[in-house]
């Protein structure tokens, strides 16, 4: 009797790149251990879910999202509240992951516009995959990886106090997912970074911001 021939096809998921000048993503080969850690978390990554509501206090029509959404206007004309049921998300006040951004973890945001100080609502969102592994990132006080450089592997609540850096203008993320903040102690506006090369924050639309602290997005936040 002939044995049955099984053909397995792996469908790889490729995140859409940022439509931003100055950011280049360079894929790298990972160690077997890192690959195994990422694959073991695939089912966890797919469980992220956020629900957007037209009105404050979770009223009106709603839209459930379990992945990236580049333009929410296709689903609803406005959004004044949201609820993160699982996972972590980055939300943006402009389409295509542009403009001001804010990190959301599990919880209820009955009136997020007042909380964030936004005049406009959420226009796009990006799901942040869960990550378990090492964290490594290089920050530079000049564009194009110039000037003073420091390699970081943990949180830093004040660049000036620890590194004597008054600003961070470019970075290279080797491992992990990170949040950069414009003020010390993880305050103010923020920016989400994942593995890749970020040659110019100014060219990415953040020329008016001075990044002064950063922290890792940990798996314990999920």
TrEMBL record:
<dbReference type="Pfam" id="PF00030">
    <property type="entry name" value="Crystall"/>
</dbReference>
<dbReference type="InterPro" id="IPR050252">
    <property type="entry name" value="Beta/Gamma-Crystallin"/>
</dbReference>
<feature type="domain" description="Beta/gamma crystallin 'Greek key'">
    <location>
        <begin position="48"/>
        <end position="86"/>
    </location>
</feature>
<comment type="similarity">
    <text>Belongs to the beta/gamma-crystallin family.</text>
</comment>
<protein>
    <recommendedName>
        <fullName>Beta/gamma crystallin 'Greek key' domain-containing protein</fullName>
    </recommendedName>
</protein>
<dbReference type="InterPro" id="IPR001064">
    <property type="entry name" value="Beta/gamma_crystallin"/>
</dbReference>
<dbReference type="InterPro" id="IPR011024">
    <property type="entry name" value="G_crystallin-like"/>
</dbReference>
<keyword id="KW-0677">Repeat</keyword>
<feature type="domain" description="Beta/gamma crystallin 'Greek key'">
    <location>
        <begin position="87"/>
        <end position="129"/>
    </location>
</feature>
<feature type="domain" description="Beta/gamma crystallin 'Greek key'">
    <location>
        <begin position="176"/>
        <end position="218"/>
    </location>
</feature>
